[in-house]
Write a structure and sequence with these properties.
Layout lengths: L5 H8 L5 E5 L5 H14 L10 E5 L2 H21 L4 H10 L4 E3 H11 L11 E2 L2 H19 L3 H11 L5 H14 L5 H13 L8 H41 L4 H37 L3 H12 L20 H21 L4 H35 L2 E2 L1 H12 L8 H8 L3 E4 L7 H10 L7 E5 L13 H10 L21 E5 L1 E2 L4 H14 L16 E2 L8 E7 L4 H17 L3 E4 L2 E4 L5 E5 L5 H10 L4 E4 L11 H11 L4 H9 L7 H10 L5 H9 L8 H21 L4 H12 L1 H7 L3 H18 L4 H13 L17 E5 H4 L4 E6 L15 E4 L3 E7 L5 E3 L1 H26 L2 E10 L8 H10 L3 H7 L3 H10 L5 H6 L14 E4 L20 H11 L14 E3 H8 L17 H14 L2 H10 L1 H17 L5 H4 L4 H8 L2 H8 L2 E13 H7 L15 E13 L3 E8 L6 H23 L3 E9 L4 E4 L2
Parallel strand pairs: 1-7, 1-8, 2-3, 2-6, 4-5, 6-7, 9-10, 11-21, 11-22, 14-16, 14-17, 15-16, 17-21, 23-25, 26-27
Antiparallel strand pairs: 12-13, 18-19, 19-20, 24-25, 25-26, 27-28
Helix pairs in contact: 1-2, 2-3, 3-4, 5-15, 6-14, 6-30, 7-14, 8-14, 9-14, 10-11, 10-13, 10-32, 13-33, 15-17, 19-35, 20-21, 22-23, 22-30, 25-26, 27-29, 28-29, 33-35, 38-46, 40-41, 41-43, 45-46
């Protein structure tokens, strides 16, 4: 018989209305949920059939575990009362009870009621790969249509500057994904757009109120810092004056000394007083909602007309023991003032201008989102596919009408459930919550919600902790904390709140340590709840074993330092037999008891390497791509060759896998039968040939493989994918083999997930299934299911915090706490929020993007929610520990900064919440909390020994501060074993081999003519573009001239060239304008063209040669093989310097000739150059080899014609240079 706590008993037995159970970590919520379900089924007065219980879980694994637990409890009850037929029947009904995820429930609902919706009866769940492909296709169509909308183009230009619509496409998907987590998202789009379309709406907007509130908070905190700085400065003044007067003998001398000190401190005190007055005024205006006066007050500081408040430049004017604290507090107050300037970015008139400018762009974006929604839905319908979010939206359409009232179908469905129970309610979104309200009784009396707001860590999946928080703040506490009887007929059900705060997982010292940290850190603004009664953990398993909490501050923030220290600590714990709790009492710690928690998988390799170097076995729970897992790859390979066996790599992988058991030597032997053709061709041929006696066993195995593959290929054409997988599993015993492997349960679960994926993605046949596997693998192997993390016996586990949720370990290390929080979401083009609507940035005319007031407000909200989620993630990490919690963090002190001084300055001024709202890492929070712990003396000394308020706590922490000279090197490797002489000889013989054509490695296989010239020539430094007289650099001018010459109409310029300079200049100007209008030359480049230099070309010998030619080929590209000797000579090598292998070698040469003139009997080459500062000799030395190679190449192409003239036209010299 379980000894339930009073709170657990109340949660199990309450029947008086809807109940929200706030269940802390380790409080036994799964046991409570199980017992409540069993009591409902076995209730002697009002029993509920097992299949009338709707229990929604977060994962399929949790659903399976809960069903098994309920079944075991019913079995025990049935065994205790064998004559009870009701209980026997309930065990059968339990197998069809809806205990599942919300997605699975909705999918089943749609399959039973598809006729009420416009969906095909044979629809299938879409796999991740198909969804991605359809999304991309729908987005492409949407963007193509949206680009006809000038307002959407204006929106896209905000972020793509006319060059790309990628950012606009991402914005469409971002808005779509956000809205799909809301019910009635079409109406929500209208509501979000409304304030943008209403003139003068800023004054009444939530953005304005939010920004003013945040400005007031920061001003209040700044005032606290400045008041403390002012008091410290006055105290230093008094002490310095007394010290100065002591050393003087006469009254006049003492007065003079005091006056000198007063004079020294006068300006700092005046500036502090002035800053304090300013910030008080800011706080007053912000608190009173006075936007315009506040903006007017701040504008001179934004424009630099007034110096920022603080003590910048006052270092020499401060003295005394408190000067460092004074500087720190003043600097932090100045930083808060800078944040206030950002929070009030515009006047109300400017906000109205922004609204008018943004409204059509935002409306166009929302129109594109609606269009994308329609196109995406059509493409899914065409393929008869539905994705997870479709399940929920279509289910809500079945249950609720457009007016929000329940449908007739809803009334029948909700009547079929005696109880609706939701686990992990903190990870619900608004759409799912609407479904729960539809499925529960109209008065909510049978609704049971259980979760922990402090463990809501799936915001990135659109989970909305505000839903839980709203009930937490408004539902009344369960009266007396005791269970209520059922509501009498005609009575009114009442919602109630109950807290399960007893933690049965962690030792007392660990519980107290966790409480200490979150009492300092977690608030409604940072974590979404106050860490007080009902949220504060209570030790549910007190005893003699206390456990421990350690905090180690390391000298730097390098992961390698952190990993090395943790590896050394684990080695010491195991070597020293550190006691932890076991089934029979206390026992020595083992490697498998230890878990290292990290915020991101990218950090895993550093910690795995550090442990491995110490010889510590380690398992990294990396949640690999399912389709790349070693035990799934053979199945993927088999499916691919069932689809198309002529794929050697996949055929070899399937044969080598555990399904068929061939070896590497077998494949070598197989290939030996026939060297050409595909591997499958060899298998097929060998399977049909007579074998020699010595080959018979091997050939028999090949024949069996071929026959099995042929049978599977035949089967794949006639049965669904799930049947094909069943046949593979049954005929090969693959599942049993996986179960026998290490970590077999997880491998079998992976195979189950793979089979489920194939069942959903294989509706279109084996080829469609293979394509879906490829797409899903490319997308990271996600199958849409959340899978908990796992450990491995005998190994230290390295795991992400997200994957650790629901698990526990005797010893937990929280590592890499200096890692910065990911704030990428704060920089999206458009920000969205359920309560605050939408905000976007705008672009100044020809300038940079800037934040509108709405965007500023939404960014502040998202930043606060991001940090709140990180605070909850920290809570999840710390509550995984059972017996020993070890925190590592960088000390953070450098030559230029001391985060401990900053934290102490805020804490001493009572501004801890503002400090915590600025933290960028777990370490920032943990260090600040440790400063006020009774054991935090060493840290307080490093922070300047400010008078900090001690936290009242019963927790005991061990604080470790390495002195900075300690290093954590891995142990020295063992001495090398003596070498095997035979192996040494074989290796030396192998390494002595030389590639027969090694000489050719010094001869290039392919070169461009330009690279040849650059290699032969010297590098010259161009003048920077901003110093060039024409405004363009030489390279830019060269590009411009080449572009003009490439597109110039030579025929139109021929007559003006003969008419004289004036006519030619006019014709060149007209040609320039023609190229600009035709977009052949950019206007900014065309304006800088030197027409006089062009006129010299068109009026000279070079252009006369052009006019005389039969054909003129401009920008003539070629690639041809030339003798290596000629190429190397062009690169500047003499025959003596060339490698011997160059004699008979050929090199591919690629180039583009500016102008090739074709005459009836010969060819001429012209190349024009824009280089400045060169003589004729310089041009010939630099470019003659290039023209020689051009000549060789074009002569091969135009044989038997020869190049009789090669010329270089220099625009800088204005003349044609003979390069023959």
């Amino acid at each position: 018989m379980t000894n339930w706590t009073p709170a657990q008993r109340a949660a199990i037995e309450d029947r008086g209305g809807g109940l929200l159970v706030s269940a802390a970590a380790g409080s036994g919520k799964t046991a409570v949920l199980t017992e409540r379900a069993v009591r409902l089924i076995a209730d002697p007065v009002r029993p509920v059939d097992a299949d009338r219980l709707l229990i929604v879980t977060f994962t399929n694994a949790a659903a399976a575990e809960l069903r098994a637990r309920i079944g075991e409890s019913l079995l025990r009850l049935s065994q205790a009362d064998p004559a009870n037929g009701w209980l026997r029947r309930q065990r059968m009904l339990l197998q069809r009870a809806p205990i599942c995820t919300i997605d699975a429930f909705c999918l089943d609902l749609l399959r039973r009621h598809f006729e009420a919706l416009d969906i095909p009866p044979d629809f299938a769940p879409a796999d991740a790969g198909s969804v991605q492909a359809l999304r991309e296709a729908a987005l492409s169509d949407t963007l193509e249509a949206a680009c006809q909308d000038p307002d959407f183009c204006a929106f896209a230009d905000l972020y793509g500057k006319g060059r790309s619509d990628d950012a606009a496409g991402r914005a469409i998907l971002q808005v779509y994904d956000f809205l799909r987590s809301l019910p009635d998202y079409g109406r929500r789009m209208d509501e979000m757009l409304a304030p943008w379309q209403q003139a003068g709406s800023f004054a009444a907007s939530p953005w304005r109120a939010l920004l003013l509130d945040m400005a007031a908070r920061r001003a209040r905190a700044a005032c606290g810092l400045l008041e403390a700085a002012f008091a410290d400065c006055q105290a230093d003044l008094a002490e310095e004056r007394a010290r100065a007067e002591e050393s003087r003998k006469t009254a006049a001398a003492r007065a003079a000394a005091a006056h000198k000190v007063d004079d020294k401190f006068a300006e700092p005190l005046e500036r502090l007083e002035s800053a304090l007055a300013l910030l008080r005024r800011v706080e007053s205006l912000a608190a009173a909602g006075q936007w315009e006066p506040l903006y007017d007050l701040l504008t001179p500081y934004v424009l630099g007309m007034e110096p920022e408040p603080g003590l910048k430049g006052m270092k020499a004017r401060l003295a005394g023991p408190r000067k460092a604290a004074v500087r720190t507090r003043a600097a932090e107050a100045a930083g808060l003032f800078g944040e206030i300037l950002d929070l009030v970015p515009c006047s109300e008139a400017e906000a109205e201008e922004d609204r008018a400018l943004a409204a059509p762009r935002l409306a166009a974006l929302f129109r594109a989102v609606r269009d994308f929604d329609s196109r995406f839905a059509a493409k899914k319908k065409e393929r008869k596919l539905l994705e997870f979010s479709d399940f929920e939206h279509l289910a809500l359409r079945l249950l609720r009408g457009p007016d929000g009232a329940p449908t007739a179908l809803c009334a029948g469905i909700r009547a079929g459930y005696g109880a609706v129970m939701v686990d992990e309610y903190q990870d619900t979104n608004a759409l799912q919550d609407a479904l729960y309200q539809c499925l529960a009784a109209p008065d909510g009396s049978n609704l049971f919600l259980v979760g922990d707001l402090k463990q809501s860590i799936y915001r990135f999946r659109q989970a909305d902790p505000a839903i839980f928080r709203e009930k937490l703040e408004h539902w009344p506490l369960l009266p007396g904390g005791a269970a209520r009887p059922p509501v009498p007929e005609g009575g009114q059900a009442q919602n109630a709140l109950l807290a399960l705060d007893a933690n049965f997982r962690s030792a007392p010292a660990v519980v107290e340590g966790i409480n200490f940290f979150f009492e300092q850190l977690m608030t409604p603004d940072l974590g979404d709840t106050a860490y007080g009664p009902g949220q504060r953990l209570v030790c549910g398993a007190p005893g003699d074993y206390q456990g421990s909490v350690e905090a180690c501050l390391l000298p730097d923030d390098e992961q390698e330092t952190d990993a090395a220290w943790i590896a050394a600590r684990i080695a010491a714990l195991v070597a020293g037999g550190e006691p932890v709790r076991g089934d029979g009492g206390v026992r020595p710690v083992r490697y498998e008891d230890c878990c290292i928690l990290l915020a991101a998988r990218t950090s895993f390799p550093v910690y795995v390497r550090a442990l491995t170097e110490r010889g510590i076995p380690v398992y990294a729970d990396a949640r690999e791509n399912l389709f790349e897992a070693a035990h799934i790859r053979p199945l993927v390979a088999l499916l691919k060759i069932i689809d198309n066996p002529a794929q050697d790599i996949y055929l070899a992988a399937a044969m080598l896998g555990p399904v068929f058991g061939f070896t590497d030597d077998d494949l070598v032997r197989l290939r030996g039968y026939k060297r050409g053709g595909s591997l499958y061709g060899v298998v097929a041929a060998l399977a049909q040939e007579e074998a020699a006696a010595e080959d018979a066993p091997f050939v028999r195995r090949v024949r069996q493989f071929y026959a099995r593959l042929t049978e599977l290929r035949r089967l794949a054409r006639s049965v669904p994918a799930e049947r094909l997988l069943e046949e593979i599993f049954a005929s090969t015993g693959y599942l049993a083999a996986l179960g026998a492997m290490e970590n077999g349960q997880r491998r079998r679960e992976d195979a189950r997930r793979f089979a489920a994926f194939c069942a959903g993605a294989g509706a279109g046949g084996i080829s469609a299934l293979v394509r879906a596997i490829d797409a899903a693998s490319a997308a990271g192997g996600e199958t849409g299911e959340t899978v908990p993390g796992t450990a491995r016996p005998g190994c230290v586990t390295v795991m992400t915090i997200h994957r650790s949720k629901g698990l526990q370990f005797p010893v937990v290390f929280l590592a890499d706490t200096g890692r910065r929080f990911n704030a990428a979401d704060l920089r999206e083009p458009v920000l969205l929020h359920r309560a605050y609507g939408a905000g976007l940035r705008l672009r100044q005319e020809g300038g940079e993007l800037y934040k509108t007031a709405a965007y500023t407000a939404l960014a502040a909200v998202h930043e606060r929610e991001m940090r709140s989620e990180q605070m909850r993630l920290l809570y999840v990490a710390l509550t995984r520990a059972q017996d020993k919690l070890i925190l590592t963090m960088p000390l953070g002190i450098t030559r230029t900064s001391n985060p401990l001084e900053k934290a102490a300055a805020f804490l001493a001024a009572g501004a801890g919440p503002v400090l915590h709202s600025q933290a960028g890492s777990f370490a920032g929070w943990l260090r600040a909390a440790l400063l006020v712990h009774p054991n935090g003396g060493p840290l307080r000394r490093l922070a300047g020994d400010l008078q900090l308020p001690f936290a009242r706590t019963d927790s005991v922490l061990t604080l470790l501060l390495p002195d900075g000279t300690e290093t954590f090197e891995p142990p020295a490797p063992p001495p090398p074993a003596p070498a095997d002489p035979a192996l040494v000889r074989a290796l030396r013989d192998g390494f002595a081999w030389r590639y027969p054509a090694a000489g050719l490695s010094e001869v290039p296989a392919k070169v461009s003519v330009t690279s040849i010239v650059h290699k032969a020539g010297e590098t010259s430094l161009e003048r920077p573009a901003f110093l060039a007289k024409e405004g363009l650099s030489a390279a830019e001018m060269g590009t411009a001239l080449h572009a003009f010459m490439e597109h110039a109409d030579f025929a139109a310029l021929a007559a003006p060239a003969r008419e004289g300079q004036a006519a030619l200049l006019a014709a060149l100007a007209a040609e320039r304008d023609r190229q600009t209008e035709a977009r052949l030359t950019a206007p900014e480049i065309a304006d800088k063209l030197d027409l006089a230099r062009l006129a010299r070309f068109f009026g000279g010998e070079a252009f006369r040669r052009v006019l005389a030619a039969e054909r003129v080929l401009r920008e003539y590209a070629f690639i041809t093989a030339l003798p290596a000797g000629a190429v190397l000579a062009a690169q500047g090598q003499t025959p003596e310097e060339m490698p011997p292998a160059a004699g008979g070698a050929q090199v591919l040469v690629q180039g583009i000739a500016d102008i090739l003139l074709v005459f009836p009997d010969h060819l001429e080459l012209l190349d024009y150059k824009t280089d400045r500062g060169k003589t004729e000799a310089d041009f010939l030395a630099a470019y003659r080899p290039q023209l020689n190679l051009y000549a060789i190449a074009v002569e091969k192409r135009f044989a038997p014609k020869k190049v009789t003239y090669k010329g270089i036209y220099s625009f800088s010299l204005g003349k044609l240079i003979d390069a023959n």
